[in-house]
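From the pipeline queue, job 12 of 40. The input is one protein chain; the requested action is below.

Action: predict structure.
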Amino acid sequence: MAQDTASQTSDDQALGLKWSNRVSLTPRILAVNIFALALLGGGFSYLDSYRSRMVDSRVEQASREARLIAQALASTNKDEKRRDLLVLSLARDTGTRIRLFTEEGKMLADSRELGLRNVTLRDPDKDPWGLEFARFLDAVIDTVAGASRAPAYRERSRDAGLDWPDVRTAQSVHGSAATVWRAPDRTPVITAAAPITGLGVVMTTVNARDITQTVRSERYRLGIVLLIVSLSSIFLSLFLARTIVRPLRLLARAAIRVRLGRAREVVVPRLPDRSDEIGLLARALSDMTQALRARIDATESFAADVTHELKNPLASLRSAVESLTTVKKREHRDQLLEIVRDDVHRLDRLITDISEASRLDAQLSRATFEPVDIGALIQALLDGREARGLPAGIRIAFDRRSKGSLTVLGEGGRLERVFENLIENAISFSPENGTIAISAQSDGDTLVVRVDDEGPGVPESSRENIFRRFHSVRPESEAFGQHSGLGLAIARTIVEAHQGSIAVEPREGRLSGARFVVRLPKGPRG
């Protein structure tokens, strides 16, 4: 359990899952795409800087115009008629309102009083709802962007020229000055003043509505683009979330039902039309569920077989023990005790083989495979068996047709158990003076080992059944209960764990006997 916990923690750290794993995929996908849209929406802040540059440019322009107008009015030599005509002409040409003040702030001339009303401020209360909504958007965007707010434009009395800050500044510094104001309809009003030598100060006023109109036009275009992109992004995000989240939820529900012990009832969707990672995950979960179902069925079948196999010796043992209390003759008691000993040995053999068979898968999954020379392994087994003696004149011939080593990657002890089982099985079925032929040879990337005997052979209908657990077909001369019926099942489990196969095949030339063939993938040479 400690290893599992550590593995999960390391996986979370590797994936950077700290807070995001608590949020569903749908809002996370939407959040990522909306964040990109927010960056696009930052273009509205760019419009504020664009407007500021336009205003600064117009302020410089207004200052230059004020200086030029002052120079032009200085040439009138206090001729009022000529001065008024020049004021009207300059106001008409520049589109500004021109006012001329004395050094004391009294009005000398005003283009409006002379009949030119080219600068008028709109009354926002009389504008249509579209302009009201535009001004509302101006206020909202200025607030969000943190734009500076110009002071409100208010008219001064006619002879209060010194109340205008531009007039006072121009008179005190003997240079031009300009100020940006805010009209009632939120459009910029620019005033500029410049001193006139020997006459006073001239002040120009212009309502730069074109700046506001330009900014609103650009904002409208950007808003249309942002709206289209936002709708498209949200639609695509929802589509993406649907294609990801919905199948994942289906797979999660199926996995939960499997966890609740309903594996036989669950049909995990395989999503055959999807070739992406979701489809791969679905098919992997489906295969895993089928493998789990097969493993559960095999476990239940194994448990039932174990129960059945244990009942027979236990029933015989119980009958013999119960009979001991009633039998008086010594020879009969000795026969019963012999039955008890045989049953105990049989139980011990069954329990040992059952224990090994039940642990085999787990042990092989944790085993470290190393290069194993199968030729040397089989030769060592044969040397040991011949040293113990072979019954009934049986001979064993080992043919190593391949030059050099016959190496596979595996666990030597388990592979030794496979070939020892096959050799002992061939010995038990061989007739008197029979020959057992063993061959090991390479076939491309595969190592093929054949074990032939001259016994009765295996019927074709039983060639697969003999590898089932507790299925035992023994020679008639062999005493009952000498084998558990797990040897060949264990051998197949070991071979398949090594990515190989074991099967019974017919012998060439219609020879009698059985042929067991083991195929294993070859490994590097040792």
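Job complete. The mean pLDDT is 79.
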